[in-house]
Amino acid sequence: MSRAEGEPSLMNTPSAQNRPDYLDQLAEFACSAQLADVAPEALKHLRFIVADTLAACAIGNQEPEMRAMRALQVQLSGGGEASVLGTGTTMNPIDAAALNAAAGCWLELDEGNLTSNGHPGIQVIPAALAVAQQLGKSGEEFLLACALGYEICARIGSACDMRMCLHPHGTYGVVGAAVAVGRLMGLAPAQMRELINLAGSSPIAGNRQGMKDGATLRNWYASHSAIMGQTAVRLVQSGFTGPRDGLTPTCDEVLFDNFKPDVVVKDLGKRWLLAEGYIKLYGCGRPIHAAIDALRDALAPLGESSKWPLGSEIAGIEVRGFKFLAFLNRRDIRNAFATRFSTPFAVASVIVNRSHGLACFDDSAAANPDIHALVEKLALVEVDDYSALFPQQQVCEVAITLKNGGVLKGRCDIIRGEPANPADPQDYRDKFVGLARRTWPGRTDAALNALYDRALKLEQLPDMRGLCGPDGF
Length: 473
Prior knowledge:
The chain has helices spanning 20-32, 40-60, 64-76, 93-106, 120-135, 139-158, 173-184, 189-200, 208-213, 220-237, 247-254, 261-265, 286-299, 323-327, 336-339, 343-353, 363-366, 369-375, 384-389, 425-439, 445-455; strands at 82-84, 89-91, 314-321, 378-382, 396-402, 407-412. By secondary structure, the protein is of the alpha+beta class. The protein folds into two domains: 10-276, Orthogonal Bundle (2-methylcitrate dehydratase PrpD); 286-412, CATH 3.30.1330.120.
């Protein structure tokens, strides 16, 4: 909610006078922390995040729009050492990072963090990878840059109230990308503080409505973080300056509300939000995962999917959940991208397809009349008590009423893959291999599993350029 006219800005209150101190803490942390300082559980999760993101970017770069955009960028931009994942192409770091960031969002497979109210990884990792490859940095340097950029990005997102209409890509992610790149380029604390202020003053304001409409422009929002994060470093190195505190107006007045700088730095270096994220196991918006988990719970007593009810055997479906789940209620689906942000469509598609894989959210699914017919039988209800529990819990209930009078009920309290309901690491490997199989169909599963193992041990690379090549990404 915007501040009423005449209400004093928080920047002018006495407590605000001490706020720049938190920027010093962030800058010092970004410049001095070492990989050994990253909590073991956070570093372990970072390895999964990076491997997962590399696969998501590689398969996303196979999409027609991404291939067309890459061709234009190659024609119009200079070359470089940064890889456009899954293509064998190298470009300058800004264009390569932008392409990878958009590609990583395309199939809605990128990791996220409910505590941070968004997706830090896809906004930080492409920029860090591109610069690390351009400069020939080691895998250890790359991982550290990702950890620091992710952590600061996530902490900023956790310290303010997100507006439902605003898409978080391209907002606080600019700071995360800038910090990662700044660390790789060896900025001193004073420069890093200037960088945080400048990057924090350079977001975009994308809206979630475009996402619901199936507007693929939304994927480029993450590219803004990749582009502007790198550009912010160049600006600081060139002598450009940001506001004295560039984060507060952005996070407290312009894009978000109720910014709490003390939350950003509380337990900095001790509690790692990096360890509290998730890796997606379904190719759709994260809130919808609660509905799919509840649906799977409802169908579990029937056994194998071949025994699931047909859409024609279902009289009605009721889905009860939290606000964000109910917000994704679009029913006039115009393309595959829109399917990934519709709770009714996702539930209907899983039932009709008898699976929860990528086929539920492709062009064939978007055009399937049986899915659309089942969508019309679904009621989606927001439950205030469930909204109050979010994001700590993601409660959703599904009730399927059959025409024969039977009722199938299922519930999700915490989405599979959240820290409180962890997924099996084998699920992450299976996802990676499944995506990689589509990206590199000529490679054996043994080779793809070896690639995954390699992605989990990037600190062994003396030069991040060695990540790619004939047997790499």
